[in-house]
Design goal:
The protein is α+β, with helices and mostly antiparallel strands and 190 residues long. It is built from 5 helices and 10 strands, in the order H-E-E-E-E-H-E-H-E-E-H-E-E-H-E. The protein has helices at residues 2-14, 61-72, 96-99, 123-129, 160-164, and strands spanning 23-28, 36-39, 45-48, 52-55, 83-89, 102-107, 113-116, 142-147, 153-158, 180-183. The strands form 3 sheets. A 5-stranded mixed beta sheet has the order 7-6-10-8-9, covered by helices on one side. The protein has a 3-stranded antiparallel beta sheet with strand order 2-1-5, covered by helices on one side. The chain has a two-stranded antiparallel sheet with strand order 3-4. Strand 1 (23-28) and strand 2 form a beta hairpin. It is rod-shaped.
Length: 190
């Protein structure tokens, strides 16, 4: 009875549909040089030598075995290739709240923190979300820090005082998810 339950557990695990981020261990008995771990990429595919790119998202490990067997059999005399595909690790579930686009407001504002942005938001709107500028803010030195995918950071300077006077309307830029708004504390001579 125990062996039967263990067998059911294994077959249920192998029948799970693959999703982006799943890590697979693939081994080919006839050619151990092909043995490797692969990950289902964001487009839902895996890459495997001699087989190319294979759509994996939504398929089971058994289906991937069958596809690999079909693609590789022309390269070997023994057409009955023994291929094993196993899920090594599935990605951790990310809380839905962490997937929402956010901006971050820090420094001399009433309520610093992260704010979810569901629609286009400007710098002034973000400052308003954070409760406005604090009494000790350096209004002429507000920064928006934006990190590009390559890791480079761009800094946009904003003069709140000039905006209030109607002079620097272009400085009220549209924000992107991940932007950090820094409202520094004013110095002695600011």
């Amino acid at each position: 009875m125990v062996a039967f339950c263990v067998f059911l557990g294994i077959s249920a695990a192998s029948a799970q549909a693959l999703k982006v981020g799943d890590s697979l261990s693939i081994s080919v008995l006839q050619d151990p040089k092909l043995d490797r771990n692969v990950t289902v990429d964001p487009s839902g595919e895996i890459a495997f030598p001699l087989a190319g790119h294979i759509r994996a998202r939504g398929l089971t490990p058994q289906a991937i075995e069958n596809i690999l067997r079909q693609k590789l059999k022309g390269n070997y005399k023994d057409e009955n290739l023994d291929i094993t595909v196993a899920v090594v690790a599935a990605p951790k579930e990310i809380p839905e709240e962490d997937l929402k686009p956010k901006i971050f407001v820090t420094g001399e504002v009433i309520r610093p923190g992260s704010y979810v942005v569901r629609q286009p938001t400007t710098l002034m709107q973000a400052i308003a979300l954070a409760g406005g500028i604090g009494p000790f803010a350096a209004k002429k030195k507000i920064q928006v820090r934006r990190r590009a995918p390559g890791g480079d950071e761009t800094i946009f300077m904003f003069n709140y005082s000039a905006y209030e006077a109607g002079l620097d309307l272009e400085g009220n830029i549209k924000l992107r998810a991940g932007d950090v708004i820094l409202v520094p504390e004013r110095g002695l001579f600011d």
